[in-house]
Design a protein that fits this description.
The complex is a heterodimer.
Chain A lengths: L3 H7 L5 H10 L12 H9 L4 H16 L5 H28 L6 H6 L4 H23 L6 H14 L1 H16 L3 H10 L3 H6 L1 H6 L7 H27 L3 H12 L6 H11 L2 H21 L1
Helix pairs in contact in A: 1-16, 2-14, 3-4, 3-16, 4-16, 5-7, 5-15, 5-16, 7-9, 7-13, 9-14, 9-15, 10-13
Chain B lengths: L1 H23 L23 H4 L9 E9 L2 E8 L2 E10 L8 H4 L4 E2 L2 E6 L3 E6 L3 E7 L6 H9 L3 H6 L8 H26 L1
Classes of the chains: A mainly alpha, B alpha+beta.
Chain lengths: 294, 195
């Protein structure tokens, strides 16, 4: 398995994913820099471009990401699982859109999970993956709950574009502008069968706390409740709406004629936003640790 | 023919079962490579113990803890939402090579060796075991500011920290030499009357 920094070096410099994030980042103050060079990131954290120091940090970071107990690799596999699931679901829905007209493939349309409940369950899985990845990467920082909350806020602030992408691509576009307010109600309708239709659930079930689907469902709902408080404030502060998101995306991706839902399907099927920004976020924390330990 | 087939099937079953057991059962935590540098977790001080030793932030500054793992704790010093510095304490048990840079160090802070790493990082080795580091971020910090920050850590408390289990290889080494020395003395004593 390749290390975190190797994966960072292999991230694309310019493709559909990068363009989509770049477009969306115009809505977020501070913007977004596509970091794809591990050595550049190390030099940035360390404030030095001494090749010997960079080599030491890199070596340490690789040792840390190879150690299973440290959780950096596990966080990445969480992101990978979510990404695979998103692509599979997106591909199916795309097929349903295209194939809806053809009688032979019409049956595919009946199979696809297009319902809003499933979309809500998918979003809650992503939020849960985000929280699990946070504890895998950072542990439980600080001595009190206040410290932990501050740390979580700090992490989210660092990943503002990432969170904006999650809110826009997975909530506002597919579920409408009232998505965050409706989400709790929608999640209430998620049954255990729905959960099993999500490919990511199978990969994540062992990492979710609690035994059985019922416990997992209640964990997801509680996790989303916590996140909703933060995300609601964040999106109203930036004034995020589906309309604004599409306009921002049109700046980089070109004009879009279809509906918001189709846009969401298209993004699900062809971009790796969540994984791309996830690798960057984990790599930054890893380098900050390695730089402090050499 | 039927006999070889039976043996073949049996062997295949055994091999696939053992491979399956190895992959599916929770044996992975027994394999090497689970921890950094394969040092058992019990020999590394938990990061929780470091948190209370961080300096109290000045007025207007804010200290946000960002990572806490076995043998490591890190916080960001922020001013007006801008990160000024990364502060970290780590247990060098998992990174023995980090000790080397202190061997040639001339400068001292409260009696412990101090090293500058590049233009923005200052490190201190406390009790030959804990590394305290300050890395300037953003606009950066002067070397004096970083050293002042390191001085405000509770270094005395850090030096007094004990590892969870005293049976580390460092503790075992002197006693091993001791018993070896005693043995050789005894051997000499036993040999004397014979000669």
């Amino acid at each position: 398995m390749s290390s975190v920094l190797e994966r960072l070096d292999r991230l694309p410099r310019r493709n559909l994913t990068v363009l989509a994030i770049k477009g969306l980042s115009t809505l977020v103050p501070g913007g977004w820099k596509n970091i794809t060079s591990a050595d550049g990131l190390i030099a940035d954290v360390l404030g030095s471009s001494d090749p010997e120091l960079i080599r030491q940090v890199r070596e340490r970071a690789d040792a840390l990401s190879r150690a299973r107990h440290e959780g950096y690799g596990r966080a990445l596999s969480l992101y990978d699982a979510v990404n695979r699931s998103q692509k599979a679901a997106g591909g199916l829905r795309l097929l349903a859109n295209v194939g809806g007209a053809l009688p032979l493939v019409k049956r595919v349309a009946d199979l696809t999970p297009t319902s809003e409940t499933l979309q809500a369950a998918d979003l809650s899985l992503k939020v849960a993956a985000e929280m699990l990845a946070f504890t895998q990467v950072n542990g439980l920082p600080g001595d009190s709950f206040g410290d932990f909350a501050a740390s979580l806020g700090e992490y989210a602030g660092e990943a503002r574009v990432r969170m904006a992408a999650l809110i826009c691509f997975d909530a506002l576009l597919p579920l409408g502008d009232q998505a965050l307010q409706r989400l709790d109600g929608l999640l209430g309708g998620v049954s255990q069968r729905d959960l099993h239709q999500l490919p990511a659930y199978a990969g994540m079930a062992s990492m979710l706390p609690g035994r059985g689907d019922g416990a997992h469902l209640s964990f997801l709902r509680r996790g989303v409740d916590q996140w909703l408080g933060w995300a609601g404030g964040f999106s109203s502060q930036l004034g995020l709406t589906g309309q604004k998101a599409v306009q921002a995306l049109e700046n980089t991706l070109g004009p879009w004629q279809g509906s918001f839902q189709q846009m969401a399907t298209f993004l699900d099927a062809f971009t790796d936003t969540y994984q791309h920004t996830g690798v960057q976020a984990v790599a930054r924390r890893l380098v900050e640790r390695a730089a402090a330990e050499i | 023919m039927a006999r070889t087939l039976r043996w073949g099937v049996g062997l295949l079953l055994v091999v696939s079962l053992s491979i399956g057991a190895f992959l599916l059962l929770p044996f992975r935590s027994w394999l090497p490579g689970g921890t950094v540098a394969d040092v058992p977790l019990s020999q590394v001080v938990n990061g929780t113990a470091f948190n209370r030793l961080f300096p109290e932030p000045d007025n207007g500054d804010q200290l946000v803890f960002t990572q806490e793992k076995r043998g490591f704790s890190e916080a960001r010093l922020k001013h007006d939402g801008q990160v000024k510095a990364l502060l970290a304490i780590s247990d060098v048990t998992t990174a023995p090579e980090a000790r080397k840079k202190f061997e040639t160090s001339q400068s001292r802070l409260q009696g412990w060796p101090l090293v500058e790493q590049g233009p923005q990082a200052t490190a201190l080795l406390v009790a030959d075991r804990f590394q305290v580091k300050v890395i300037g971020q953003g606009d950066g910090l002067e070397a004096e500011q970083r050293q002042e920050l390191i001085g405000r850590f509770n270094l005395r408390g850090l030096a007094a920290l004990q590892p969870a289990l005293p049976s580390g290889p460092r503790a075992a080494l002197p006693s091993g030499q001791d018993s070896a020395g005693r043995q050789s003395l005894e051997r000499v004593a036993a040999m004397e009357p014979a000669s």
